[in-house]
Amino acid sequence: MRCKQLLSIVFLLTAAFPAFAQKQVEADSITVIANAKFDKAGLFKRALLGTSYRKVWAQPIKVPIFHLNKEKGGLKITGTGGGNQTTSLQLEDSLGHEWVLRSVNKTTSRDQPQIYKNTMVEDLMLDAGSIGHPYSALAVPPLAEALGLQHTNPIIVYLGDDPALGKYRDEFANHMYLFEERGPADGSKDIKTETLQDKLEQDNDKKADARLILRARIFDFIMGDWDRHGGQWKWTKSDSSKNTYEPFPKDRDKVFYTTGGAIFDVMSIAKPNLQAYTDHIRRVDLWNYNTVGFDLYFLNQFDQKDWEAEITYVQSHLTDELMERALKLMPPNVYAVSAPAIFKTFKRRRDHIRKYAMRYYRFLAQRVDVTGSDKNERFTIIRQPDGDVQLTINKVKKDGLGKVIYQRTFKHKDTKDLRVYGLEGKNTFEVIGGNTSPITVRMIGGHEEDTYLIDSAQSRKNLYLYDRSDQQNNLPTASAAHLKLKKDTTVNQYIRPENKYNTVTPIVSLGYSTEDGLQFVGGANYVRYSFQKQPYSSLQHLSVNYTFQKQSFIVNYSGIFKKRLWDNDLLVNITERGPRNTNNFFGLGNVGEFDKAGGKEFYYYRNRYDFAVADIRLAHHYNHWQLSGGSVTQFYTASEDHNNDHFFNKYNQLHPEEQVFKAKLYTGIIGGAVYDTRNNTTFASHGVVWRTTVTGLTGLNISGHTSGSMLSTFSFFVPLMDSTIVFANRTGAGAIAGKGDFFQMMNLGGLTMRGYHTSRFIGNTILYNNMELRAKLFDFNAYVLASSFGVVGFNDTGRVWLKGEKSDTVHDTYGGGIFLTPYNAFLFEAVLGKSPEGTLVYLTAGFRF
C-alpha cells in the first residue's frame, strides 16, 4: 500500500490553471494561452519533471468563442462530469444529439487525498500536467478515419462568462474547452463497455467487432495512447448487423504523451506507461497496463496471423502525408514548436510497431480466457499431435449443432494456460485426440447441467475440470481428467480478466533504538497471480536487516502460497540471524544479572551467536480465523573465541551443562491459531487480534533436549472520542515444559517491555501486559510535509518465572512519545521507555502492536 500511495503522488498527470492572457478579442474569437505557468517553471521543477510540452502550453492561440445558445442551434446543459483529471459540461441539442465540453487544463485527481491539498506534492502534481499535449486530440480524426475507426471531431473553443451557464457559471466560465460529440455523430444510441459485456455473456447471437478493436489497439501503440481501458470506449450497433457492436474510442488525453525529468525517469522503471513518447516502447505489456483486462476479454480470438495482418493494414494506411495533414489541424504556432518531433517519433513507431505489437500478442496469448454465454453451447477441444490445441464453440439448437461462434488454434509455443468457461446454459465439453499437450486446458462448467465427453485415449495430463459437486452434471472418470469438484460456488465462478501482473516491489526502511543503533532494511516483495488463487497465487518476501552498531545481519524469507494442498495455503518462514549476529543474554530468571561494576557496560551482555529457524506450515482460513500446522527446524551455533570478555563466557563457566558453545540442531512440530477482527492492520482503531503458537522440539545432536511450549497474545483496540483517541492493550502469556535451551524459553524485554533491553528476563513461564493510549492531536501542513500528529503513552508490566527461583518482582515500565503519519502513507513512531535500569529510545515504522 505504501508503494502504491507514493506512486500516486508522482503519476497523477495533472494541471489546473485557468486559461490565461487575453491578447486580442474579436467578435467571434479570442487569443488565449492554455497555461503560461508551465513554461515559467524553474530549474528545480524542470529537473524533477522535465521540459515535455511546456512551450506548447505557453503558445498563444486564436480560438472561437463558444455561445451555448447559438452553437448547434442552441444547447442545453444536461449535467457535469469528467474523469479523474478533467471537468466536463454535458450538453444536448434540439435533435437529442449529445455533446460535451471537456476542459483543456487538468485538475488534480478527483480521488486525490485531501491531505495533499496546498502541499509541495499537489504543486508537483499540478506541474506534471505539462507532460500531456493539450491539442493532441485534434490530430486523431483523419488518422482514425483512414483506419475505418469511429471517432469524435473535436475543436478547441473558449467559453466566456456566458449567462446560459446558470448555476455552473463559477465553475465553467472563462476557460478553454475541447468541444466534441459525446457519442456517434448520427445520434445513434451507444452503450458502455460493461453493458456490452453483459449482452455478450447473456446471448451468443451478440458479438463485438473484435477486428476493429485490435486495429484500434495497434493505433494506440503508434500514438502513445496508453490509457485505453474499458471506460474509454462506447459501442454502437453496426450498420450491417443489429447483433454486432462496433467500438467507439473516446477521450484521447494521452496521445503523444511524453515525460522527462528525474522523477519520471526513475518511476518509469516501475511504471513503464510513464516513459516518454519515443520510437521505443519498453515493456509494452506494462506500458499498456491499464488496458490489459480489456484486451484479454475482447482480443482472445486472434492468433499471430491475425495480428500481423492488422499491423500491416495499419502501417499501410497511416502514411506520412496523412500524418502531416493531421498534425496541421493543430494551431499553427503549436504545430511549429511540437509537430516536427512528434512526426519523427510517429514514423519510427509506425515502422517498428510490428516488434512491439507482437510482443504484446505473445503476452496476451500466454493465458487465455474464453467464455460461452447463458445459452447452450458445445465446446470442442482437439489436442493435436504437435501439441497445439484447437477450440471450437458451436451454438446448440433444438435440432442439433448451430453455427460456429468461436474458433482458434492455440500454439503451444505461445499459450501456457487455456480456460474455457461455460457460464449458464446446458453445455457440452468434448475433448478429442489421444495426444498430450504442454498447454494446460481448464474446462469450467456453468450453473446448469453440463456434460463432459473425453476421449478414452486421452491422457489427463494438463487437463482439468471444474464444477459443482452438489449439482447434477455428467462427469467423466477421474482417470480422464483432473476433477476439481466443490460445493463452493467459486469453483465455477467467472471473473472477467483483470490487470494483474506478477510484480516485484522493492523495500527500503530505516530504524533506530538505543539498544541496536541505526538499522537498515533492504529487500523486495514478489507477488504472483494464477488461476482461482485469490487475492494472489503467492506472496514472497525477502529482506536483509543490517545493524551498524552491532555489524550484524538478519536475513528473512517468507512465502504465502495459496491453495497448494487440499485447499490449504502453504506458509514458509525462514530467518537467519547471522553471520555475526549479536543478541542480548543476561542469564536466566526474573531478576537476571545486569552488573555494571568493574567497568562492565551493556555491551558486556551482547553475545555473538548465530541462530536460524525454518517454519513450514499448511494453513486454512475460516472467516476471521487462520489455523496452521507443520514442522519447524532450529539451528544454533556460538564460538567461545567470538565471545571473549562477554557474559557468555562467564555463564558457560557457571553452567557448563548448558553447552552454550556447542552447535545444536532441533526439529519438531508447530501449530498456530490467529483470530483477527481489526479494521486496519497498521492503524487499528477497533477490533481484536488473538495469536497462539504451540511448539514441540527435540534435539537431533544433543540428547535429553525435548520441550513443548505455548505462547499466546491477545490484543484489543477501543476507539474513544470519534477514534481520535484509541486505547490499545496487549496481554501475553506462555510457558515451556521439558528441557529447552535459553533461546527457546520465554523472554521479556524490548518491545514486550519498553525500557528494558530485549531478552532482559528469561524463564519457563511468562505473563505481561502492554497498555497504550494513542491520541491524534491535529493535522498540519508545512508545504513540504502534510501529516497527522499524535502522542502515545504506555505502561508495561510483566514478569517471568524460572524453576527453582524465588522472586516476587513484577517489572513495571512507562513512557511515551509522538507519532506522525506523513501523507497518510505510513506511520512513524518515536518513544522513550523508562525502567529502573534506564531510559531507552525507540524509533519505528508503525505501532508495536
From TrEMBL:
Signal peptide start-end: 1-21
Keyword set, alphabetical order: Signal
Keyword Signal in annotation: yes
Protein name: Bacterial surface antigen (D15) domain-containing protein
Lineage of the species this protein comes from: Bacteria, Pseudomonadati, Bacteroidota, Sphingobacteriia, Sphingobacteriales
